[in-house]
Give the backbone structure.
Amino acid sequence: MSAEPRINDRIRVPEVRLVGPSGEQVGIVPLAKALELAQEYDLDLVEVAATARPPVCKLMDYGKFKYESAMKAREARKNQAHTVIKEMKLRPKIDPHDYDTKKGHVVRFLKQGDKVKITIMFRGREQSRPELGYRLLQRLAEDVQDLGFVESNPKQDGRNMIMVLGPHKKKTEAMAEARQAQEARKAEAKANPGRSQNPADTDADVDAEGGIDTAVDTEAPAEA
């Protein structure tokens, strides 16, 4: 069945409870009279409550109504906040430079209002030293405590140790700030057209061994 309401000649009832263009209650009138009023106002007769007895109909510009409803739905989707979990992988004996790089990505994710899954990967004899991974996770949590908190405490998962950080800032707040910053950059670029722009950040991070450490949006933490 169509989700569209019945309008004008598609309405097939003897009488309707009519609502005027400004929301005023006209009362129960014959369908023919309601259609006549719609023509006089150059509007549509739209059935807004089909299950009422008699059905409730309103005089409106149905095309304009549909357009405004679509715009509202689009804006709602635009502002919708999805729970996103980023992932960052570290080795227990990571060197200071790589640690700072990884921490920078975690900081950026938390500022965006996203959760971050931190995975410590143990290899070989490192598996017998879980305290190394635990201390590294604790250090990272302390370094970013102004932006996020430990949502899931460190726990061993096979050869990995996992911790989840949650942002202090809500996703909707981060999205609003990001839009404001983007608008400010556009305004600055328009005012200074010859000024070069910085390249966009990327979610991919090259690890110390030359591999790609992905930080991809997911709806739930990825399995190790």
